[in-house]
Amino acid sequence: MVPEFAAQLLNDSPFYQGAMILIISLLLSKIAPLPRNYQPIVWFGLLAKELAAKVNHTSRAPSQQLIAGTLACILLVLPFSAIMTFLMQLAAFPWFFEFVTLYICLNDENFNQTAIEVKQALYQEDKNRARSILSPWLYRDTKELSEVGIAKATIEKLVTTPVYGTVSTIIFFGIGGAPLVLITRMIKQLELCWPPINPQFSHFGKPVYLLSTLLFIVPSWLWNISIAIQGGPQTILSLLKPLPNTQPLHNCINTCSISARVLNVELGGPMKFNGIKVDTTKLNHGPKPNADSITSAIRLANTTYGIWIFFVISMPLIWAGLRYLHS
């Protein structure tokens, strides 16, 4: 029985190796993240902004802006993903490139530490410091954010980041390996850099937005369920109710709504982009958030993250147990 089980483990070694790469990447991104200024995905976002500044002309016809946005997306995503896929195919140790790819795609997973710093600044009534800490993480105006606005932005970032971080990495790595994780993460970064909710990118960013919406339907749905189960039956049932959205080009609105219910706070509301006010759905599920609400949001995000980590660790253990019983 034991030799047969050992042979089965050996045959399944690619599965266990992939599981180990995924687990170590997820944990290391939390324990020892790269400084934001050294993160390749952040550099990719800066490149996307520079390209948009040259090819996104809002004075042109909407159809021309749509074409420009589509071509810009292809130009940015295709070469980098092709190079990484090529390296993984030729490398003597492809697992190393897979690990590095997953690690850099999980760069936003260390936002928890930023949220703690923002919370501490609010406790000290230093709104300017809180805004400066939050600013590099957001693609909207932060200079005029009130204490409530800072708390809302921090909570919304906390609860939405794992959709394109932890959850999507687990799902897409299982489906198509590290290359698929990289491609989807780059597309999401383009959506964050060119949000169509921003009037400047209302047409230019729409192709990327629609593609990102399609790709992240399942990760968003699964993450929302993970949050909703912590809010009780009513919160779970709210997943089935359509959400009235006055701003359709806003992907994270459903996740924010579920989180607002669980945290019993108000989220959403107006945003500013380049000084232009944009109305979004106000999610009135409780009082306006403050620094204490950020603490609750951190706890919620950590608990939900723990659920997913437990899932990833348990899968190879369950598989090995089934193999042992079968042998």
Structure description:
The protein has 327 residues and is mainly alpha-helical. It has one domain (15-326). The protein is 70% helix and 4% strand. Strand 2 and strand 3 (276-278) form a beta hairpin. The longest helix has 47 residues, at 147-193. It is globular, with a radius of gyration of 21 Å. The relative contact order is 0.13.
Strand order of the largest sheet: 1-4
Radius of gyration: 21 Å
Low-confidence stretches: none
What is the rounded distance between the termini?
6 Å
Characteristics of this structure?
327 residues; mainly alpha; cell membrane; Cobalamin biosynthesis protein CbiB; cobalamin biosynthesis; threonine-phosphate decarboxylase activity; transmembrane
Brief account:
The chain has 327 residues and is mainly alpha-helical. The protein is built from 13 helices and four strands.
Topology diagram in text:
Elements: H1 2-11, H2 13-31, H3 40-55, H4 62-90, H5 94-105, H6 111-123, H7 127-134, H8 147-193, H9 206-215, H10 217-228, H11 233-238, H12 253-263, E1 266-268, E2 271-273, E3 276-278, E4 282-284, H13 291-326
Antiparallel strand pairs: 1-4, 2-3
Helix pairs in contact: 2-5, 2-13, 3-4, 3-8, 4-5, 4-8, 5-8, 6-7, 6-8, 6-13, 7-8, 8-9, 8-10, 8-13, 10-12
